[in-house]
Amino acid sequence: MSNLIINGLLQSRNPLLTFRRFRGKINIQRPRPPHYERARVLEIIKPYYKKPEFNAPCVDAERLKQSKMVDNPYETIIAREARNWFEHSNLVALLHVNSIKQEDMFKVQVALHRHNITVKVYGKSIMRKAVADTKYEAILPLFEAKTAIIFSPESQKIKQILNVLKKTPQLVLMGGIVEGKLLSRNELVAYATMPDLTTVRAQFAAVLESAGGKIVADLQCHQRQLVNLLDAYAKNVSEPDQRNAGSVTDGKEES
């Protein structure tokens, strides 16, 4: 009985796996249709592509053009503000902005704000509206990438700007506008080494005064020479007369 239980009931049998090849050759050009349920699923998930119209590229281009021509009132207001900054600033510096943390950018803004200098960042569409058909239109190619703008009412603030930018290599000076004239980076650096307008005026006044004094001296040179010669001649003539007068007085005293 125990043998029957062990051999008959408790004995485990491993399944036998047999691999069989497909009985026929697979036809790639004419495959067998799928099962009905699978065919229904495949029909549902079949992608559907709309046939493009004949003039679709032209229509899409016209729609894109019209979407760009849509006037944005907010951009118009910001563009008016940007133009106002350009017109009322004697110094405008253009900076290329590389990857920089907002914390570092805020430190730069604070450092420049201490010198009454403002930093602004505008997009390309806003700048196109702000400087289009103006004398500042030449700076538009600089706004293909992210560009920051520095505005200052005083043109001599370029020294402070260069000192701040030395500590921030992420901001690269590309050029600027000084009193309505577009300058490159090298020209701005050279302009920073020049003295202020008051000093230059004082130097120019000194040069004019020295030139005038030299002209007066040259005009009076001949007169002074004539006066000196006459004075020397008068002294030479007066000395023999004094000697003769002295000898006459000495003879009288002896007699």
Automatic annotation (TrEMBL):
<keyword id="KW-0687">Ribonucleoprotein</keyword>
<dbReference type="GO" id="GO:1990904">
    <property type="term" value="C:ribonucleoprotein complex"/>
</dbReference>
<dbReference type="InterPro" id="IPR001790">
    <property type="entry name" value="Ribosomal_uL10"/>
</dbReference>
<dbReference type="GO" id="GO:0005840">
    <property type="term" value="C:ribosome"/>
</dbReference>
<keyword id="KW-0689">Ribosomal protein</keyword>
<comment type="similarity">
    <text>Belongs to the universal ribosomal protein uL10 family.</text>
</comment>
<comment type="subunit">
    <text>Component of the mitochondrial ribosome large subunit (39S) which comprises a 16S rRNA and about 50 distinct proteins.</text>
</comment>
<dbReference type="InterPro" id="IPR047865">
    <property type="entry name" value="Ribosomal_uL10_bac_type"/>
</dbReference>
<protein>
    <recommendedName>
        <fullName>Large ribosomal subunit protein uL10m</fullName>
    </recommendedName>
</protein>
<dbReference type="Pfam" id="PF00466">
    <property type="entry name" value="Ribosomal_L10"/>
</dbReference>
<dbReference type="InterPro" id="IPR043141">
    <property type="entry name" value="Ribosomal_uL10-like_sf"/>
</dbReference>
